[in-house]
Amino acid sequence: MKSLWTLLCCVVLAATLTACKSSAPAPTEGESEAESTAATDEAAKTEAAAASAEKPEAKPDIPAPPDVAAPPKDAKRSESGLAWTVLTKGDGDKSPGEFDIVTVNYTGWTTEGRMFDSSVKRGKPAEFPLNRVIPGWTEGVQMMVAGEKRRFWIPGKLAYGEAQANDPHAQFGPPRGTLVFDVELLSFKEAPKPPDAPKDVAKIPKNAKKTDSGLASRVLEKGDGEQHPTATSTVTVNYSGWTTDGKMFDSSIVRGKPATFGLNQVIPGWTEGLQLMVVGEKRRLWIPENLAYAGRPGRPQGMLVFDVELLEIKN
User: Fold this and answer.
1) In this predicted model, what pLDDT tens digit does every residue of 105-137 receive, in sequence order?
2) How many angstroms separate the CA atoms of 162 and 191, rounded?
3) Radius of gyration of the chain (CA)
4) pLDDT of residue 22
């Protein structure tokens, strides 16, 4: 959500490798590591083969629908360019809002028919705030009711960007261009009312302090701590973020749960700005684009404004 990409930890494989290592005897006195490895090689192969036989076979990719290349004539379109057809009608009577937490099953393909992600294949529905995914999802799922299944054709501008020649991120990042998703809305939870956008969200006020990097901030509430986090600290915070037109794009308050992360794992403006704070402090940050997402597709663009409350520091 981020995006919809999910990192899967191969717990079974890791456990198998650990078991194989621990079962191999250590070298006896005067026996070299190479000799010990040779002596136990056959046993290790046998155990590895047995472990492999016990692992369930990987599920095959879900075939692409016949109309994956382009929306059919009966597809409906919105002004943004999003297209869709209803595959199964739902039995709900309400639709989620952009900040609500939805539970869905989905599969995604490129227009060439390559499947690149699927909660169905993983065998586990996905749950996330609707405003934390690509714009095409945020727009499209708000039209649905519980139990409904739709097929969406999402243009690159509403997904991860259009395909470009010599794109340095194309090989490693999410797929570019139009993407096709089958989405089933299983349920959703209404989020708490989001905080109002600050009155000074549009530009940096005169009473804000600036650093040499271009980051600006002002203290909203003083803290009672004495220690500042470092660039490698792990912090727990509550926060909300807006673009300069006052549109909220993220909020731990709306999700009802503070966020914990390493300061070296976030945008540079956060890494720098949080080091100015102490526990209990609440500060507003104006983060220029070069210290935020630097124009990356699928991310909020331009200068971003955050209200951040530092709850805890874990060094």
Assistant:
1) 999 999 999 999 999 999 999 999 898 899 999
2) 32
3) 25
4) 32
Residue bearing tokens 């794009």: 249
pLDDT band at 55 (very low <50, low <70, confident <90, very high): low
Q: Which residues are catalytic?
A: 239, 249-250, 267, 293, 306
Q: Which two tokens stand for residue 225?
A: 């701590």
| Whether residues 121 and 223 fall in one domain | no
Is residue 3 pLDDT above 90, yes or no?
no
Please report whether residue 58 resides in a domain. no
Domain membership of residue 161 as a residue range: 76-189
- Amino acid identity, residue 171? Q
Q: What percent of the chain has pLDDT over 90?
A: 69
Q: Which residues contact 118 (CB under 8 A, 6 or more apart)?
A: 61, 62, 106, 107, 108
Query: CA-to-CA distance for 132 and 248, rounded, in angstroms?
Result: 11
Residue 267 and residue 308: Cα distance in Å, rounded?
14
Which class for 46: exposed (0-12), middle (13-18), buried (19 or more C-beta within 10 A)? exposed
Q: What is the spatial distance between Cα 191 and Cα 96, in angstroms, rounded to a whole number? A: 9
Co-location of 292 and 247 in the same domain: yes
- Reference 24, options 9, 11, 40; nearest CA is 40
* Selection from 183, 184, 185, 180 nearest residue 66 by Cα: 180
Residue 285 burial by Cβ neighbours in a 10 Å radius (0-12, 13-18, 19+): buried
Residue 98 belongs to some domain of the structure: yes
Answering whether pTM is above 0.90, one says: no
